[in-house]
Amino acid sequence: MPEGELVYAVGDIHGRSDLLATLLRQIEADAARQDAANKTLIFVGDYVDRGPDSRGVVEILLNALPEGFSVHFLKGNHEQLLLDFLDDAGRLRHWRVNGGDATMASYGVDVDQLDRAGAPPDTWREAFMDKLPPAHFDFFRHLGLQVPLGDYLFVHAGVRPGVPLHAQDDMDLLWIRDAFLDETEPFGKVVVHGHTPVSEPDVRSNRIGIDTGAVFSGRLTALRLKNGERSFLRT
Ligand SMILES: [Mn+2]
After folding, report:
1. Which residues contact 148 (CB under 8 A, 6 or more apart)?
2. Per DSSP, what are the bridge partners of residue 43?
3. Could you list which residues have their CB under 5 Å from ion ligand 1?
4. Tens of pLDDT along 109-151?
5. Cβ-based neighbours of 58, under 8 Å, separated by 6 or more
6. Model confidence over 40-76: pLDDT tens digits?
7. Cα–ligand 1 centroid distance for 196 (angstroms)
8. What's the CA gap between 103 and 95, in Å, rounded?
9. How many angstroms does the Cα of residue 195 sit away from the middle of ligand 1?
């Protein structure tokens, strides 16, 4: 990172508003001790699904972040699943098998009742739209796909080897695993990503994985970059 830049990149949250609140307090306290001209917070996506409080996570991201940071919100494949369902109710099943029930329930949708009644996808969509605050809908619709900063590129899942960073396919940025994870050659920038859970931050010469599976492990991780230093904060 250039001199004077202090960057925190937060991994996949998946409905764990409790862990997010804890990690943000750590980041705020840590940043207060640092001398930096610019402080930046980057979230690599997958805010929703699986965990119990997706709604609370988005509330924190919209209204309760520490002050004094530039903030970037990336889109994860789980936000894409949610948006795809809102665009086309026929995508309901695809979202539900990936943890969408927990998200709808967190917004107050009676998932069990809809399930028992065998409600058609359009009814689920109406029920969810009815509960989704417009500010949350806007949040999901305006998420970014990549953030370059210094020698780093921040994305949700990864990048396709052999494709220039400016020409990457959205589907790869949101979903890629093996072709990216197995690549040992440099990508042009060090790619900081989530999406694929690891027990400890996965630090390689060409990439850094920071999805520590918070929803299952209780461990939410932030990568901290300052000048030439790298370190981690975690719950
Ligand atoms: Mn993901």
Report:
1. 154, 165, 189
2. 10, 73
3. 46, 76-77, 195
4. 999 999 999 999 999 999 999 999 999 999 999 999 999 999 9
5. 47, 48, 136, 139
6. 999 999 999 999 999 999 999 999 999 999 999 999 9
7. 7
8. 10
9. 4
Helix residue ranges per DSSP H, the chain: 17-32, 54-63, 77-87, 92-96, 100-106, 111-116, 121-131, 134-141, 170-175, 178-181, 214-217
Q: Ligand 1 centre from 156 Cα, in Å?
A: 7
> Is domain 5-155+211-234 classified as CATH 3.20.20?
no
Q: 109 alpha carbon to ligand 1 midpoint, in Å?
A: 23
CA 35 to centroid of ligand 1, rounded, Å: 33
Parse the chain into domains and list their residue ranges. 5-155+211-234
The two three-digit tokens of residue 230, written as one number:
């790298």
- The answer to whether residues 17 and 58 touch, using CB atoms and an 8 Å cutoff, is no
Cα separation, 196 vs 176, in Å, equals 9
What is the side-by-side order of every strand in the sheet holding 190-193? 146-149, 152-155, 190-193, 207-209, 202-203
0.85 exceeded by pTM:
yes
Which spans in 64-190 are helix H?
Answer: 77-87, 92-96, 100-106, 111-116, 121-131, 134-141, 170-175, 178-181
- With H, G, I as helix, E, B as strand and everything else as coil, classify residue 58: helix
Residue 153 Rama label (left phi>0; alpha psi -120 to 50; beta): beta
Name the burial class of residue 149, with classes exposed (0-12), middle (13-18) and buried (19+) by CB atoms within 10 angstroms of its CB.
buried
Residue with the two structure tokens 């903030």: 71
